[in-house]
Structures are given as C-alpha cells and as structure tokens.
Task: inverse folding
C-alpha cells in the first residue's frame, strides 16, 4: 500500500513534507464543553457530495451533538468572503463561523481582517507551504482539475484542453462555477493558460481568458454553472471541475449516465482549499472543534472517501493509516505526475486578472 501511496504522492513535490508522526491528540474537554454550550455551528458552501462533506458533517453532529446550520451549499469562495463581510454584526444563523475557500482567498481574507487564528492539534503535520504561520488559514485537501464527461452524449472524450475547441463539442463545455467568484473556475482559466505555454500568474491568466474567448466564439462554451444534474440532463455534457467532484458524481449517478473523468495531458492544475474561522464567528468554540474534527484522522479519511487528497495524506500514509481500498478507487498515480502547484503569489496574480477581465475579454455571463 505504501509503495502505491508514494507514487500517488509524486504530485505533491511542490508541497514540503513536515514531520511524519501521527498526532493522537483529542480536542480538550474544555473546548468540547464550550462548543456544546454554544450548541451550533454555521457552515457555508459545503455540498454533501463535495469531498465527502455529507458524511463528515453527519459524523461531527453525531460525535458532539452540535447542530449544524448549512448556508448556500453552491456558493463560491468569493461568496463565502462576502457572507462574512455582510454579517459582521449578525449573531444569527446567517453568519458563517467557518469557511472553506480556494488558496488565494485565504490570504486575502486574512489581509482584510476577516479571520481569526487557531492551530489544530495536528498542526505540525500540515505542510508549511499550505498554512499561515499564525494559524489564520490552513489547507485541508487538494485535487486536480479534470473533464467530467457524459458518455451517453459524448462518445470520444476530450483528452486535453485544445480538444475542447473541436466542433464535436458545440454547446457542450461548462465551468463548475462563476470565474469572477469561484476558485474552481478561476483555476480552470489559469490551467488552460499554462497549457498554452503561459507562465503561472498573470501571463497564464491572460492566455486562459483568450482560450475561453475562442471557446465562446465557437459556440462550445455553455455559460451556466455545470453540476451533476446538468451533466446528466445533457445541458452541460462536459464540465471542467475537480477530479473529486467528478468521481463522486460517477458514484452518485451509477451509470445513468456513464461518467468519464479525464485528467488533461497538459496544464494539470492542482488546487489546495483552505479552512479558516471567521473573525466574527458567532460560535467560535464550535468552529474550533469543527477544525479539530476535520484535521483528525477521521476527518482526513472522510475527505479521501470523497476522493479528495487530505492535507495530512503524507504523514498518514507513512504511518500506514490510509486504507488501501480508498487508494485503489482513485485515478492512476501517473495521471497526477505533472500536476502544477502555483505559488500563492501566482494564484493571487492570476485571480486578479481573471476576475477583473472575464467580462471584457470573454463576454459570457456565467449563471
């Protein structure tokens, strides 16, 4: 199992391994008591079929008896940030306690004073390159962008980004979010720019925007947010989305239709998502306990069950704590070998260009 795990982890060369000991620490009795006294937690943008969150939320509620208010499951990272800003003085269930956002959104949220620091008990096993030194945000899982394909409609799946421009895929290709607010969609634009030879950052962002301008002009781009339902219905038979979402849809749809998950040959974009606690969290102790749950062995394996690579994967694999049957359900390790992990500076640079220029360059209002 560990040999396979080591091969699978070839994609993480850009993320340094920090320590291999598996922390067995449990949340303190004081934290558990304080969280239970608050009685509830408010999350946002956590669809149950995203990274195994449905099971993770259920296990948290069952373990601690804390009510979970779930806001806007289909929100993008930008929407999560706006929800904090709009509810600074709100102590009710419309104010998120925690957020799960794309990497670049974590750093900007800290700069804007929207987060508060907290270091989980397994802190040392989170790579330094995937966490804020002060504990304001830290990576929870990662995946790579893939093409999710409805095989009942698309007989020959696209194998690379340029294939999407073929006339065979007229009115077929959708993003899984709004590129003006969704980290997933922003990274898709960034990825195709890299595939076209752009340097990660602003250069790739501009090349990616030009690609989507072409895709839209050819009539291949569908300006709606692609989901499992739209894929199955055939309105968006090709959706550019995280590999873990596509694999989860494959299981959920159970062959109706058959789903193909294709990791492109070039521009394999890896994306780390991060957790943070709102600086204005109405339930700060429940938020801290939620973080402890996510970064425990149980929570991290919960992410892997949802086909996401948990951030503590390296340490847990070295300790033999990753079930072999979960590894075998993932795409071949070779598919991930060329994955690119842009730096936070490159991500912020690309995000600024894409969110600002999407309307003027591409001219497709994604809804």
Result:
């Amino acid at each position: 199992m560990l040999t396979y795990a080591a091969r699978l982890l070839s994609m993480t060369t850009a993320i340094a391994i920090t320590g291999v000991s598996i922390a067995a620490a449990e949340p303190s009795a004081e934290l558990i008591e304080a969280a239970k006294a608050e009685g509830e937690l408010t999350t946002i943008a956590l669809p149950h079929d995203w990274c195994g969150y449905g099971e993770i939320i259920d296990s948290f509620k069952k373990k601690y008896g804390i009510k979970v208010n779930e806001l806007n499951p289909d929100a993008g990272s930008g929407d999560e940030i706006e929800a904090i800003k709009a509810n600074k003085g709100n102590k009710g269930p419309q104010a998120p306690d925690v957020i799960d956002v794309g990497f670049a959104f974590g750093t900007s949220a800290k700069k804007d004073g929207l987060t508060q620091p907290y270091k989980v008990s397994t802190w040392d096993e989170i790579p330094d390159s995937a966490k804020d030194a002060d504990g304001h945000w830290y990576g929870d899982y990662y995946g790579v962008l893939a093409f999710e394909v409805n095989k009942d409609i698309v007989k020959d799946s696209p194998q690379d980004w340029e294939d999407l421009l073929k006339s065979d895929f007229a009115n077929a290709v959708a993003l899984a979010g709004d590129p003006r607010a969704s980290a997933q969609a922003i990274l898709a634009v960034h990825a195709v720019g890299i595939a076209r030879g752009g340097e990660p950052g602003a250069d790739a962002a501009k090349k990616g925007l030009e690609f989507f301008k072409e895709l839209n002009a050819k009539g291949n781009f569908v300006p709606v947010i692609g989901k499992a339902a739209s894929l199955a219905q055939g309105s968006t038979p090709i959706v550019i989305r995280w590999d873990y979402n596509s694999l989860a849809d494959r299981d959920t749809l159970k062959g109706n239709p058959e789903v193909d998950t294709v990791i492109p040959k070039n521009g394999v974009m890896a994306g780390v998502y991060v957790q943070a606690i709102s600086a204005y969290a109405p339930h700060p102790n429940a938020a801290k306990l939620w973080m402890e749950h996510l970064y425990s062995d149980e929570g991290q394996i919960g992410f892997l069950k949802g086909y996401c690579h948990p951030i503590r994967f390296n340490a847990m694999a070295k300790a033999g704590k990753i079930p072999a049957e979960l590894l075998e359900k993932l795409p071949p390790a070779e598919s991930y070998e060329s994955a690119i992990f842009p730096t936070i500076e490159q991500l912020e640079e690309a995000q600024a260009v894409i969110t600002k220029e999407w309307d003027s360059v591409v001219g497709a209002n994604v809804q």
